[in-house]
Amino acid sequence: MHARVTIKGKILNATIRIPYAPLKPEFLIKLILLSIALVAPSAVYEYNRFKLLYRLEDQLPVITRIVADALRTGTVIEEALNLIARSGMAPINAIVGRALLLSKYRSIPVSEALRIVGTEIGAEGIVRFADLLDLAYRYGARAEDILDVAAYTMEAVQSYRREKMVNLKPYVALIYMMVFVYLFICVIIAILSSFHISSTAFTGGFVKLEINDVYLNAMVSIVEYITLINCAGASLIIGRVVYERPLAGLIHYIILAPTTFVFLSVLKVMLARMFVPSLHVPII
User: Fold this and answer.
1) Could you tell me the residue ranges of all domains in the chain?
2) Is 87 left (phi over 0), alpha (psi -120 to 50) or beta?
3) Predicted TM-score (pTM) above 0.85
4) Between 20 and 30 A from 78 (CA), which of 5, 17, 122, 175?
């Protein structure tokens, strides 16, 4: 039952009654679906963008070594980039191919074209690769050595990033667990705080405790909406720590929000069977 209740409060020592109407479960379901519909486009876009940039960072050492090896055989940088563009190394081949077309039609150096493309898609790795090509043009005979050292450094950095992501996975699971534990504790507190002594309390040495349904529904409603806020906050934290993009973490909100609602529904049924109907406890 979701009824209208009043909560006592004081303003300037004057007792007032504040009306409070708990929202129904149907409204909570609609709110969850609406929030998922609102965050899903940004979450999916940011998560896919993270995967794209991560994949590019993983491929940059490979193409840097390809260019270095091409220079050792006397091949010019443009020809090496053409080989990369025609290869099946997605997505780097499409980006290099786009830069070559831009270089051709705007009559600019291919390194500048790569810098423009990298800036447009927000890939700092592509911009750094364009800077390396500028160094290769500048130093000529030593270009392949510079590129080899750069490729080694890129591999070391990418290895560190992979190791960091692996180490952070248990903490993501811990954040999930904390959300569910918090929800469980809040529901238990809501149920225990809703007990009151019945008007026919004393029966044969026992005191009869009953649950105030209106108060319990009000408390559980508050817990439900606070939990949704916690899910959103936890998702943003995961995005910032793991993906280095807070909005990318909202992909976890799409998982957490309906999961916590299902968990709460099951939890309410289980606890209702445990505590309802009213309890009899001995008088101490």
Assistant:
1) 20-51+165-282, 59-163
2) beta
3) no
4) 122
